[in-house]
Amino acid sequence: MSRIVYLHGFASTPLSTKAQFFKRKFAGVDFEIPHLDRGDFEKLTVTGQLQAVDQAVRGDRVFLMGSSLGGFLAAHYASNHANVERLVLLAPAFEFPARWRSRFTEQELAEWRARGARAFYHYGYKADRPLAYAFVEDAAQYQDAPDFAQPALIFHGKRDDVVPPEVSERYAARHPNVTLKLVDSGHELTDVLDELWQGAANFLGFQNP
């Protein structure tokens, strides 16, 4: 049976609620949660995170699970690696490069560039941490909605105000290999974890008690 590699979201860690929930539920399965910023949030980039994913996968046949930005990373990685067999994406941040820039005014981006870093709340540290402007520059080179051929299951909250469900609806409408399940939740999805577990376990072919 394939290993599972779980990719956490932006400004998060392997200790996130969803990551640890699925690790417990997939007890007995080789389940890895790489630390995507590799301990240095300030130097975080999409490229660096994809390198961390590659180190965790190690060329094995794997299932990828990804939450928010981790879902965007999983899609990008799968688009270039046929050893990824299936994907389960939780509120994936498709259209991330464009949507990320749209969060800030041109003046805010210019100030971030001039200062070199900008503070963001980090859920793992439960405090603000600086993030270098290189994050913006690096993200711009990546496709908003990477195409991958593998079967995928997407869960997206109907009340998501961070990544609107329409983002996943647009993606699923263009990709017949993708099954989209809209759930009654917001972006975090922590209030529907059992529903996510049931669907993910069935989709990945694991015994679902």
How are the SSEs placed, and which strands pair?
Layout: E1 3-7, H1 17-25, E2 31-32, H2 46-57, E3 62-67, H3 69-80, E4 84-90, H4 96-102, H5 106-115, E5 117-122, E6 127-132, H6 134-139, E7 152-157, H7 165-174, E8 178-183, H8 193-204
Parallel strand pairs: 1-2, 1-3, 3-4, 4-7, 7-8
Antiparallel strand pairs: 5-6
Helix pairs in contact: 2-3
Task: Offer a concise description of the structure.
By secondary structure, this protein is an alpha/beta fold.
Fold and architecture overview:
This protein is an alpha/beta fold. The protein has a single domain (3-204), classed as Alpha/Beta hydrolase fold, catalytic domain (Rossmann fold, 3-Layer(aba) Sandwich). The chain is built from eight helices and eight strands. A six-stranded parallel sheet has the order 2-1-3-4-7-8, with helices on both faces. A two-stranded antiparallel ribbon has the order 5-6. It is globular. The protein starts with a strand and ends in a 5-residue tail after the last helix.
List its salient traits.
single chain; 209 residues; 8 helices; Rossmann fold; 21% strand; globular; alpha/beta; two-stranded antiparallel ribbon; 6-stranded parallel sheet
At CATH level 2, the architecture is 3-Layer(aba) Sandwich
Helicity level: 25-40%
User: How many domains is the backbone divided into?
Assistant: 1
**Order of helix and strand elements from N to C terminus:** EHEHEHEHHEEHEHEH
Total strand segments: 8
Overall, the morphology is: globular
Mind telling me the CATH class? Alpha Beta
Largest sheet, if any? 6 strands, parallel
Unreliable stretches covering 5 or more consecutive residues: none
The largest sheet has its strands arranged as 2-1-3-4-7-8
Under CATH, the homologous superfamily reads Alpha/Beta hydrolase fold, catalytic domain
